[in-house]
Amino acid sequence: MVVSGLHRINCRPAPRPDSTRSQAPRSSTWNSPTDRPVPAPRAANAVTPGKPFIIIAEDSRRDFSSTDPAAYNGRPVLDAIWNFGYRDEIRLLATDDITTQFGQASRSDRVRHLISRDGVWNDDFGHGHFDRGYADLANSVDYATSHDVAEAPRMMNYLLGSILSAQALGPGDVADVRATLDTAELHPSQQSAQRNGAAAFALYRVFGVFALLLTSVGMPMLLAGEEFADVHDLEFTDVQSKQQDPVQFRRLAFPGNHTVQDQVGRLITLRANHLSLQRNEVQFFYFHPQFDDSDAPRVFGYARTAGNPVGNLGQVIVMANMGPQKFTPYEVPGWPWQALPVTEIGAMGPFTDRPAYDAGSGSLALGLDAFQVRVFTT
């Protein structure tokens, strides 16, 4: 399920709706999505006769109209496009950097649109609006990081770099992030407790980004190495060095990185097998009352419902705290599932307590640390 580099338009084996996006060994490339709307399936069948293929475009225009059933002569031009807007918005959400203006969409509306298929926010150089949405989850390739690292670096660099800088532990550049993570190879006497804490904070936040990505309505895509929070060893803004910076699988031996891979793997298994994640339905059942205010708690909850009302069996529940405040515990009023047992999938973060339902108040209490995301099934 790894993408490391793609052409403009790629012929890909048709995934099941519950599958994730994978790099294929061969592809056909054209300058424009409308240059060759018909030969793509023919080219795919020539490479692998008798197997179905879909066409996915790396289309930075953020226009999903090409995936409409009647986009060109009564048929779609493309089956799916990369969701560039998703990448931009989930990074802002992951660092509590979503800003709003009077007369534009609220923060909660932008989160709803990010997770669903209704079209993500487009700043459009100050003339903000929502992009048009898409008909089915298989029309959108959602991602947080791709091979275009010059525009959006590896998530561990993005998060750990900002943490190191904010805590005045270092500049947070490529060398600083690499050195902080690689101290796991050193003797404990040579390690810094503060830097280790910063790395641990960033690692569970990487997991949180995956938790949101893998429960959003779309086909999730990731860059090789992101599944265990690898970092850049070379400057990612340089066109040459970024292509000469291989995945460092040795970091899988680091305890924190190994834990990320293990827990992200659990989420991937959930994504591939849970029926609710193979459908389009999503329902937000909770936002903190001051969620849309400045400097307020950023707690929200949503469920992939499998087409049933919230509160039923067979649903995936996500509780997210995308702000710096810690809650020990946080109480969610009017918990829809009441006393129905829930199972946590891929736990990472300081709080992994079992949620407790209070029948008297109808609320659920659970721990939520800063920027912690927790995923449950019923």
Number of strands: 16
SSE arrangement, N to C: EEHEEHHEEEHHHEHEEEEEEEE
Task: Summarize the amount of helix as a percent range.
Answer: 10-25%
- Biggest sheet character: 6 strands, mixed
Gyration radius (Cα, Å) is: 21 Å
Beta-strand proportion = 15-25%
Q: What is the end-to-end distance?
A: 26 Å
Shape: globular
Low-pLDDT segments:
1-39
Structural class: alpha/beta
Strand arrangement across the biggest beta sheet:
1-8-7-4-3-2
Give the count of helical stretches: 7
The number of distinct structural domains comes to 3
**What's the pLDDT, averaged over the residues?**
88
Task: Note the topology.
Elements: E1 2-3, E2 9-13, H1 39-47, E3 53-57, E4 80-82, H2 84-94, H3 107-115, E5 121-122, E6 129-130, E7 140-143, H4 155-166, H5 174-182, H6 193-213, E8 219-223, H7 255-273, E9 283-287, E10 299-304, E11 316-321, E12 327-332, E13 343-344, E14 356-358, E15 363-368, E16 373-377
Parallel strand pairs: 1-8, 3-4, 4-7, 7-8
Antiparallel strand pairs: 2-3, 5-6, 9-10, 10-11, 11-16, 12-15, 13-16, 14-15
Helix pairs in contact: 4-5, 4-6, 6-7
